[in-house]
Amino acid sequence: MQLNFLIGSPLEQFQILNLLPFYINLPFGVDLSLTNSALVEILAVIIFVLLLKLTIDGGFLVPTHWQSVIEMYYETIFGLIKDNIGQKGNSFFPFIFTLFSFILILNLLGMIPYVISVTAHISVAIGLSLSIWLGVTFLGFNIHGIQYLSMFMPQGAPMALAPLLVIIELVSYSARAISLGLRLAANISAGHMLLGIIGGFGWTMLCAGGIAAVGSIIPIGLIFILTFLELAVAGIQAYVFSLLTVIYINDAVNLH
Predict the structure, then answer these.
(1) For 7-35, what is each residue's pLDDT tens digit?
(2) Where do the DSSP E strands lie in 15-172?
């Protein structure tokens, strides 16, 4: 029996859909309608709060398996801050801990079938990186004042090259507002698109029947391997995003 199945575009998994039967439009083109992207972000916040409460309420002198995992999770983030910022970075621990957890949960939720991968959207990823860039810039001026501008002129550099070096450093510094989020979105979207393409290819071979159906075992088996790889990427990208954020904060705090 011939099976007919319409394979949609791999980009369909990134579509933002309105979940309400109406739109909530405000002046200046602001739309507050509940979308699948917003719903997943709300769900990520709820999961983070529930896990945090479970951790706080479940502390024992002799740790349970769950408590041991949470303590390792805590020590990883704390070590990340201590190694890059030092003692001055302790006050930034709640922010980095929340940032890492939020991105990690969003990445893992995006691995569930029919759940939109929020961090694959440029608007969300760059929105995060732009907010961090603005916050770090404000932090640098708040701590060092006008002296913060000295980071755009490397120490010991000849004054004749000052105009060129300042422009290069300024462009490099400004690029952080985009590169941080772009890296996250590109890596997450690439993995999901690859899974979608190989999955569609495997299903097409399976529906074709005959030798092609037997050969579909290869792409279908590859999907399982790539799924575990994408789970690892979800954690790695959350860690890289948090690591770069810590490095940027270190530049603002210690004026590197």
Answers:
(1) 455 566 677 778 777 677 777 667 777 88
(2) 25-26, 30-31
